[in-house]
Amino acid sequence: MRPLTADSLRGVWATLLLPLNADDSISFDRLESQAQALGETSVAGVYAHGTAGEFQTLTEDEYDRVNEILVAIGKPFQIGASHPSAQVQLSRVERAAKLAPGAIQVIAPDWLPLNPTEMLEFLRRVADAADGVPLVLYNPPHAKTQVGGRQLCQLAEAVPGLIGLKTAGGDKAWFDEALPSGLAIFVPGHFLASMSLLGAHGSYSNVAALSPDGAVATAADLDVERRIAQFFAAHVVPLQQAGLSNPALDKFLAAVGGWADVGTRVRWPMQAATTEQVTAARTDVRRLLPELFGNSW
Fold it and tell me: Which of 40, 36, 39, 34 is nearest to 19 (CA)?
């Protein structure tokens, strides 16, 4: 596809989630069905291999096979090349670039934080390996290397291939510091309406895990965002406090939404939400957020 730019990278994007068999192998038939379902939605595009895609658990053969399914969806797509190892990540970037995605998503190598010089050299080398495909930096709160607004501006100037950022966002002061970078700033789906008013450009959306079309239809609705917060407080926060991972939470949301057969199972040793927790949340989400589901329930 045509490479994305900082100006064209916009909107609500949905992720592929890994449907798993009882032995932790990927159910590729269910993954293809999920991909087909996303292809029929109104999301701006689809990506794979973010945190919710359990990228750190994939073998390289699994990584390549998921990419084949992603490319075949027929929507704009981005490929995550992230991996805790910089060396493995570089190899993934090289292979992803050959598939001509709109952008390649990367993270700072994990385990040890990078100093500013190392971060710059990492992005420069990754950009070279991407061979003209633009980059999006994932920098969530749990990343070992945290990139502030001032450093973000420096990186954007030094690495022209860097076009976007996935972040938790922040208040007006945070956006005032980050926006001069010129990057497309993507924030969590459950904050998109309010943070769009501060300058956010889109979301790699956890709300799309709950309802892809609903996330698009309500992206600017502050009242829906308020009620999403109520739903999260009742059903997502307790799972977070119990120690469930972000992939487990996104699969929980997809199971509650019921738009695809994803399942709640996450790869060992991560813990999954229970059927009882999904059932309880389904009752509340229909009452609190009917706009997300239209006439599908």
Answer: 34
